[in-house]
Design goal:
Length: about 325
């Protein structure tokens, strides 16, 4: 019988990474880490199990063996042996590039891959922290190109002050960038396609320059201005709060200091928990697994229920298809 599965994190280092992830993950050498890929199906970076009798098997192998019992029958019918999500913790000591992601149709045509939609949950943010998402006025291709030429794109970007608990949905086509001094959890579709268009001047330094994808990006950007970019939601203590539902995946916040019995009897998908505060024990089929802040666990679709027993006030993100 399957059980709650933990996976070895896959650490990534980029020019903008910081030291918060090393602290979160209790890595003693305090090295710079930009991203921790918690659950990844990306080729060359497929997650491997860290606990139980399946330890050492990778995610794709598990789906090949357990199929719908692992991911849910509707998910297996649609995606086959490809796990449909990529889950990360991200630590930005400096701003990420301004970028955009293509939708499914464009990604399929250009890259024979899925498009990319994502959601951010802010775990920690310093007082000056901001996120860039969308534009602060209606735009068009010509204005954008001119702003890139004049190196004043930031004049047209929408910046949002952030604090712990803030949620941002980033649909395909929306220009965005994580600002400095932010630690967040990211839930996204299983795609690693990113079009960078601006990198805060780093693109002009030979030591930090990375490839830009302006020509590809111009065709996929949503140039519209929106009145609100931050997701509004209400936390219900010892219950589940919807914070994202976008047609690809669903995310709920579980904020609790008392025991919760979670039933999956009517669910047709796997469930993933990312712990963003506190710690809890998961009890399932007579076995227990501890989940602490900065850890992630996959609940296979065949499991009917899990008991969540908090050791302190705890908040989880519950992700499913």
């Amino acid at each position: 019988m399957l059980y709650p599965l933990k996976f070895h994190p896959i650490y990534k280092t980029y020019v903008w990474g910081g030291k918060k992830l090393a602290k979160l993950k209790n890595i003693k050498n305090n090295r710079q880490i930009s991203e921790s890929w918690e659950l990844s199906p990306i080729k060359g970076n497929i997650s491997t199990v860290a606990n139980g009798f399946l330890k050492g098997n990778n995610l794709q192998e598990l789906i090949e063996i357990y199929m719908g019992d692992l991911v849910g029958e509707p998910v297996y019918e649609k995606y086959g042996t490809e796990f449909p999500l990529l889950l990360k913790f991200i630590d930005a000591a400096q701003p990420l590039s301004v970028q955009v992601h293509p939708n499914d149709a464009t990604a399929l045509k250009r890259h024979n891959a899925y498009g990319k939609e994502e959601m951010w949950y802010v775990i920690e943010a310093e007082n000056d922290a901001e996120i860039c998402t969308g534009f602060n006025q209606n735009m068009n291709r010509e204005i954008l190109q001119k702003s890139l030429h004049n190196k004043n794109l930031s004049d047209f970007l929408n910046f949002e002050k952030v604090r712990s608990g803030n949620v941002f949905e980033i649909p395909s086509g929306r220009i965005h960038s994580i600002g400095k001094n932010i630690l967040l959890a990211e839930v996204q579709t299983a795609s690693d396609i990113t079009y960078r268009i601006y990198d805060w001047g780093r693109e002009y330094d030979a030591k930090t320059a990375r490839q830009m994808h302006t020509d590809l990006a111009l065709d996929v950007i949503d140039y519209n201005f929106y009145k609100s970019y931050k997701t509004q939601y209400e936390i219900i203590r010892n219950n589940y709060s919807d914070i994202c539902r976008n047609g690809h995946f669903s995310v709920k916040a579980v904020d609790f200091d008392d025991v919760i019995l979670r039933s999956y009897i009517n669910a047709e998908s796997f469930t993933v928990y990312m712990c963003v505060d506190g710690d809890t024990v998961l009890e399932c089929n007579g076995k227990t697994e501890t989940l602490v802040k900065g850890e992630t666990v996959l609940i296979p679709a065949e499991i009917d229920e899990v008991i969540l027993i908090p050791n302190q006030h705890t908040r989880l993100l519950e992700i499913s298809m």
